[in-house]
C-alpha cells in the first residue's frame, strides 16, 4: 500500500521557516524584514523556517545551465521559476544560509521529520509517519481514538521528578535517500547528535534547534544520551522497540515544554549518516567554509530524502535545476501517482525585481518566487494568461525601538526611547489605517499591539489591541503625554530635549523608504522627527545585534508552534537574537517562562493571551501593518496555482495541483 498525503496535500518538501516558523539560528533568528521568498514556510512550517539551510562557497557547480529563454519553446512539464537575487549558490550542504533560493532548494532536496499545519495545529507526516508522548517506560499516552492525550501527559509528567518527557517517533518504512539507501532512525540519531556537538557541526544554530533535546555530545563523544533506538537503547530500562521496528522507531527525551518538539520536528533537515559520518571531524566540520575532496563533492551533489534532487550537471550561476523523484518518493498523491506534478523545476536568476517582472510578462518564466509590492498589481490587470494571487499575510511588520542602548551605543536620543511614556506617544501617533491604504494600496490589514494575528484564533487576545480607535483622539493623547515631558518646541514645531530637537533615525532598506516617509508625517503631528537611514547588506551584524540604531523595522510571526521559542528570542535573549532593542523586563520574562513550562494546554493558551497584553503595554515593537502576500503566475502552460495565508503561488499545494495546459 502506498503512503498518501493527507487531504489538502500538506506535505514536504518544504523547509524553513519562518519560517518557519519554526526556529532560526542565532545568526538568523531575527526575521529582519517580511520575507518575500517562497512561502512554503507558514502553513506548513518546516526546516529552518526561520532561514538556515545551505552553505555558499566560492566553488562553482559543474554545469553551465541552459538558456533563460528556453521556456518559450518548451512543451515539457518543466516549471520555470524566476528568482530575484544578487547571486545563486554555487555549492550545497543542508544547513546554514538565509538566501531565499537556498532555503527553498534545500527544503526540497532534504526533509524534516514533520511539517506543521497552522490551520489545524497538527504536525503532519514528512519522513516521520507518526509521533506521540509516552510515559517514562515508553508506553504511549493516547486517547481511545488514537490521538495524543494531553490531559494524560499533563497528569503523568506533573507527578514525575524527571526533568524530561519521552516522545516516540515512527518513520515511514519506505523512505529512501536519493542514492537509493533507506532512511532509518540512525540518520535521525546522527543528525540530532551532531546538532548538539558544535565541535563537529561548527553551527551555533544547531545548538539552538536541539536545545530542548536532553542529549549532548562533545567532540564526537557522547556525554548525555537522550535518544534511543533498537541499536542504542537504554541499557538499564530499554524502550519497547521490536526487531521489526529497528529502522523506524526512535524515542527522544525532551524538556518538559509542550513546544519542545517544534524545532526538532520542523526545523532540522535530516542528514544521511552514511554520507556525512565518514567525512566529518573536528578538522573537517560539517559546516566548513572550505570544503575539499569528497566533502566538496557532497556539497556540490547533495544526497537528500526530499521529493527533488539537484541536477548539478545542468545547474550553474544563472539557473538551478531540480528533478522530481516521482515514484521513488515515499509520499504519493491520493490516486497513488507521484505527489508533485512538474517533472523538473528550473530556477532562473534575475538581478532585480523589474527585470524579473518583465521576464514573466514576456513568457520567460511561469511564475516568480517572490511576494511583490502592491504597486505592481495594475501591471497585470489587463494582461492575458496572467493570474495574480493576493492572500493575507502571516506576519506583522513592527517599528522596533532601542529601549536599552548598550555601552558605546548610548546617545542622548536613544536615552529618550528608554522612557515607556515616550514610546507610548509614538505608538499612538502611528496611523496603521493610513499606512495600509497608502503604502500597501489596501493590500493588507492593521495589526494588534499584542502582535498576534486574528487568524490565530486559539491564541488571539482582542484586549491587546490597544492602539486602535479614533486616530485624532490618539494623537491628542500622545501630545498630552509628551507635553508633560518635553513641552518646549522649536520654530518648526518639533519638540526639544535639553535644547536639541528630538530626532530619530529609522534603519531601513530602500524598499521601506515610502513607509518612513509616511511615518515622518504622522510623527510630526506629535513633534517627533524621524529620518531614513540605509541599513546596508548585513544589518544584523553591523547594527542590530549590537544595538547601534534608534529604530528599525522587523517582521514578527507568532503562532501555536513557535511561541515557546520566538517569545524568548524576541523579548528575552540579549545576544544575537531578535531582541534587537535589548528589552529587559522581569515581569514579561516570568510570564513567558511560565507559559513555556506549563503542561496544561489550556493554561498555556491563556498565558499567551496575557503575554500579548504585556507586550502591547511595553510599546517596544509597535505594529505598522500586516501586509498581504501578492504573487503572480502565467497560465499559458500550467493551471492549478493556489496560495494559502502567507504563501506565494510557488508552494506545495501548487506543486500538487499543477495541470499542464492544453
Unreliable residue stretches:
1-31, 33-65
Described by strand count, sense and barrel closure, the largest sheet is: 6 strands, mixed
Arithmetic mean pLDDT: 87
Note the beta-strand portion.
15-25%
The count of DSSP E runs of length 2 or more, i.e. the number of strands, is 30
Q: Compute the gyration radius: what is it? A: 25 Å
What would the principal axes of the Cα set say about the shape?
Answer: globular
From the N-terminal CA to the C-terminal CA, the straight-line distance is 32 Å
Structural class: alpha+beta
Number of helices: 20
Q: What level of helicity do the residues show?
A: 25-40%
**Strand order across the largest sheet:** 21-27-20-26-24-25
Description:
The chain has 662 residues and is α+β, with helices and mostly antiparallel strands. 26% of the residues lie in helices and 19% in strands. It has 20 helices and 30 strands. The strands form ten sheets. Strands 21-27-20-26-24-25 form a six-stranded mixed β-sheet. The chain has a five-stranded mixed β-sheet with strand order 14-15-17-5-18. Strands 8-9-13-12 form a four-stranded antiparallel β-sheet, covered by helices on one side. It is globular and about 80 Å long. It starts with a strand and ends with a strand. The model is unreliable at 1-31 and 33-65 (pLDDT under 50).
Amino acid at each position: 500500500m502506498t503512503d498518501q498525503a493527507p487531504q489538502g496535500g500538506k506535505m514536504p518538501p518544504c523547509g524553513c521557516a519562518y519560517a518557519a516558523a519554526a526556529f532560526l539560528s542565532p545568526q538568523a533568528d531575527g526575521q529582519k524584514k517580511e520575507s518575500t521568498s517562497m512561502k512554503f514556510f507558514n502553513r506548513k512550517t518546516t526546516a529552518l523556517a526561520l532561514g538556515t539551510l545551505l552553505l555558499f562557497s566560492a566553488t562553482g557547480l559543474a554545469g553551465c545551465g541552459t538558456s533563460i529563454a528556453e521556456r518559450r519553446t518548451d512543451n515539457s512539464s518543466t516549471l520555470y521559476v524566476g528568482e530575484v537575487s544578487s547571486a545563486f549558490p554555487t555549492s550545497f550542504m543542508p544547513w546554514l544560509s538565509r538566501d531565499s533560493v537556498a532555503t527553498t532548494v534545500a527544503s526540497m532536496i532534504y526533509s524534516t521529520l514533520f511539517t506543521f499545519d497552522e490551520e489545524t495545529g497538527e504536525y503532519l507526516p514528512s519522513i516521520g509517519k507518526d509521533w506521540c508522548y509516552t510515559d517514562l517506560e515508553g508506553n504511549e499516552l493516547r486517547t481511545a481514538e488514537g490521538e495524543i492525550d494531553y490531559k494524560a501527559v499533563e497528569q503523568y509528567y506533573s507527578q514525575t521528578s524527571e526533568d524530561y518527557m519521552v516522545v516516540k517517533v515512527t518513520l515511514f518504512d519506505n523512505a529512501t535517500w536519493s542514492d537509493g539507501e533507506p532512511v532509518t532512525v540512525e540518520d535521525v540519531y546522527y543528525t540530532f547528535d551532531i546538532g548538539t556537538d558544535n565541535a563537529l557541526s561548527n553551527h551555533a544554530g544547531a545548538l539552538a534547534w536541539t536545545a530542548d533535546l536532553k542529549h549532548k555530545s562533545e567532540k564526537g563523544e557522547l556525554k548525555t544520551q537522550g535518544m534511543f533506538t533498537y541499536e542504542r537503547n537504554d541499557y538499564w530500562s530499554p524502550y519497547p522497540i521490536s526487531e521489526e521496528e529497528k529502522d523506524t522507531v526512535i524515542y527522544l527525551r525532551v524538556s518538559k515544554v509542550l513546544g519542545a518538539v517544534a524545532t526538532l520536528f520542523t526545523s532540522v533537515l535530516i542528514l544521511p549518516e552514511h554520507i556525512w559520518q565518514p567525512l566529518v571531524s573536528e578538522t573537517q566540520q560539517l559546516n566548513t567554509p572550505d570544503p575539499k575532496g569528497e566533502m566538496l563533492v557532497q556539497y556540490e551533489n547533495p544526497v537528500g530524502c526530499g521529493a527533488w534532487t539537484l541536477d548539478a550537471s545542468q545547474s550553474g550561476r544563472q539557473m538551478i535545476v531540480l528533478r522530481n523523484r516521482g515514484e521513488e518518493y515515499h509520499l504519493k498523491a491520493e490516486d497513488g501517482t507521484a505527489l508533485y506534478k512538474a517533472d523538473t523545476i528550473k530556477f532562473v536568476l534575475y538581478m532585480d525585481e523589474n527585470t524579473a517582472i518583465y521576464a514573466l510578462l514576456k513568457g520567460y518564466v511561469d511564475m516568480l518566487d517572490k511576494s511583490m509590492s502592491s504597486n505592481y498589481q495594475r501591471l497585470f490587470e489587463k494582461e492575458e494568461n496572467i493570474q495574480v494571487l493576493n492572500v493575507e499575510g502571516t506576519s506583522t511588520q513592527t517599528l522596533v525601538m532601542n529601549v536599552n542602548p548598550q555601552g558605546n551605543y548610548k546617545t542622548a536620543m536613544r536615552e529618550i526611547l528608554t522612557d515607556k511614556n515616550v514610546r507610548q506617544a509614538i505608538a499612538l501617533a502611528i496611523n496603521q489605517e493610513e499606512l495600509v491604504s497608502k503604502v500597501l494600496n489596501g493590500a493588507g490589514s492593521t495589526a494588534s499591539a499584542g502582535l498576534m494575528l486574528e487568524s490565530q484564533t486559539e491564541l488571539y487576545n482582542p484586549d491587546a489591541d490597544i492602539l486602535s480607535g479614533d486616530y485624532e483622539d490618539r494623537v491628542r493623547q500622545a501630545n498630552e503625554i509628551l507635553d508633560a515631558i518635553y513641552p518646549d518646541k522649536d520654530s518648526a514645531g518639533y519638540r526639544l530635549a535639553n535644547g536639541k530637537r528630538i530626532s530619530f533615525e529609522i534603519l531601513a532598506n530602500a524598499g521601506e523608504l515610502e513607509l518612513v516617509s509616511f511615518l515622518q508625517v504622522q510623527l510630526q503631528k506629535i513633534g517627533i522627527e524621524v529620518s531614513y537611514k540605509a541599513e546596508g547588506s548585513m544589518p544584523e551584524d553591523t547594527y542590530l545585534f549590537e544595538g547601534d540604531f534608534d529604530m528599525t523595522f522587523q517582521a514578527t510571526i507568532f503562532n501555536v508552534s513557535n511561541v515557546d521559542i520566538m517569545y524568548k528570542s524576541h523579548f528575552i535573549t540579549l545576544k544575537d537574537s531578535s531582541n534587537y532593542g535589548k528589552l529587559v523586563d522581569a515581569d514579561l520574562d516570568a510570564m513567558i517562562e511560565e507559559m513555556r513550562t506549563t503542561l496544561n494546554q489550556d493554561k498555556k493558551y491563556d498565558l499567551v493571551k496575557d503575554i500579548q497584553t504585556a507586550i502591547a503595554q511595553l510599546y517596544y515593537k509597535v505594529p505598522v501593518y500586516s501586509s498581504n502576500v501578492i504573487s503572480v503566475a502565467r497560465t499559458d502552460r500550467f493551471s492549478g496555482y493556489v496560495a494559502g495565508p502567507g504563501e506565494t503561488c510557488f508552494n506545495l499545494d501548487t506543486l500538487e495541483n499543477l495541470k499542464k495546459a492544453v
